[in-house]
Amino acid sequence: MKIRAALLEEFARPLVVQELDLADPRPGEVLVRLVACGVCHTDLYTASGVDPSGYAPTVLGHEGAGVVEAVGEGVGDLTLGDHVVTLFSPQCRECIHCRSPRTNLCLAIREQQNKGYLPDGSTRLSRAGEPIRHFMGTSTFAEYAVIPEIALAKVNSEAPLDRACLFACGLSTGLGAAMNTAAVQPGSTCVVFGAGMVGLGAVAGCRLQGAERIICVDLSEQRLELARGQGATECWRADEHTVERVLEATDGFGADYTFEATGLVTVMREAVEAARMGWGLCTVAGVAGKGETLDVVPRLLITGRRVCGSSFGGIKGRDQVPELVELYLRGEIDVDPFISHRMPLEQVNRAFELMEAQDGIRSVLQLSV
Ligand SMILES: NC(=O)c1ccc[n+]([C@@H]2O[C@H](COP(=O)([O-])OP(=O)(O)OC[C@H]3O[C@@H](n4cnc5c(N)ncnc54)[C@H](O)[C@@H]3O)[C@@H](O)[C@H]2O)c1
Ligand SMILES: [Zn+2]
Ligand SMILES: [Zn+2]
Question: For the domain 171-313, what is the CATH superfamily, name and number?
Answer without folding.
Answer: NAD(P)-binding Rossmann-like Domain (3.40.50.720)
